[in-house]
Amino acid sequence: GAAQPVTPAMQKAAQAAVAPGGTNCESRIEYTTAWAAKLPGTFPVYPRGNTQEAAGTDEGGCALRVVSFLTPVPLNDVLAFYHTRALANGYSAEHVKAGGDNILSGISGENAFVIYGRRLPSGVTEIDLVTSTP
User: Fold this and answer.
1) For the chain, what is the domain count?
2) What's the pLDDT score for residue 61?
3) Which of 10, 54, 68, 125 is surrounded by the fewest CB atoms within 10 Å?
């Protein structure tokens, strides 16, 4: 298959898995839905979202959040919500399609977000939201 596009924000979010000083943030992640409540205010779980899984860490200079949720709201409406919030809070925002996902990503200084969204066969929207605010 063709190479999937990698946006600058996706690159920064991937780099965020390693904090300054070489700390491996991904290895410090804890899995509990409590992390959904600890998302940055700019990127909350969508108002009609039902959290399925969440993980994150604040250890070792890391501030990584990963939350997956479902919502009955159409994918385009959910992406528009996050796009608007990103721009209003000083983030860039870029939308690409890759591997069956709609990917919205952006950066603001050292902060980054990536949202992977897809419509499931059941008609429900599934979102994977990743934020890094070191």
Assistant:
1) 1
2) 78
3) 68
In a domain, 55, yes or no: yes
Q: Are 9 and 94 in contact (CB under 8 A)?
A: yes
On whether residue 70 sits in a domain, the answer given is yes
pLDDT(5) > 60: no
Q: Which residues pair with 53 in a beta bridge?
A: 68
Q: Cα separation of 121 and 125, whole Å?
A: 9
Range of the domain at 86: 8-132
H, E, C per residue of the chain = CCCCCCCHHHHHHHHHCEECCCEECHHHCEECHHHHHHCCCCCCCCCCCEEEEEEEECHHHCCEEEEEEEECCCHHHHHHHHHHHHHHCCCCCEEEEECCEEEEEEEECCEEEEEEEEECCCCCEEEEEEEECC
pLDDT tens digits, one per residue of 9-58: 555 555 555 455 556 777 788 888 999 999 999 999 999 999 999 988 88
Residue 1 covered by a domain: no
Task: Give me the chain's average pLDDT, please.
Answer: 85
Residues found in the chain: 134
pTM for this model (two decimals): 0.83
